[in-house]
Each structure stands twice: as C-alpha cells, then as structure tokens.
Amino acid sequence: SANGNHGQSNRYWFPTGEDGRWRFAWGGYVSYLSSFNSTPAEEAGTYMSVTQKNSILTSVGVRTAP
What we know:
Number of helices: 2
Mean pLDDT: 94
Distance between the termini: 39 Å
Order of helices and strands: EEEHEH
Largest sheet: 2 strands, parallel
Shape: globular
C-alpha cells in the first residue's frame, strides 16, 4: 500500500467455491474474497458466474472450450 497499489471492483472467477484455501495475497495470504475486499488490494470485488466469464471471454475473441 505504501506504493499506492490498490484495486477496486475487480471480477474473479474460480472453478470451485471458497474452501479456506488461499486465493489472494496482500500483507499475507487471504482465503476469502470478503476478507480480501477489506484490504487496499481490493474494494467491492466480486466473483463471476461461469456464464458471465464465458460471455466476457467470447466478447473479446477468447475460446471458452477446446
């Protein structure tokens, strides 16, 4: 945070639900998006559904399946 690094309203996708394993890091490892949202690294971050993820990828020409 001393360098002005921060995040806001980022969207994340992960293939499984939160299970206590580390997914994020800011001054240590963070397991839950709700906790990560409490750091300067993220504010108002959300998870995307598979449909949302695929729609975004398709809109920019990225294939979503082999």
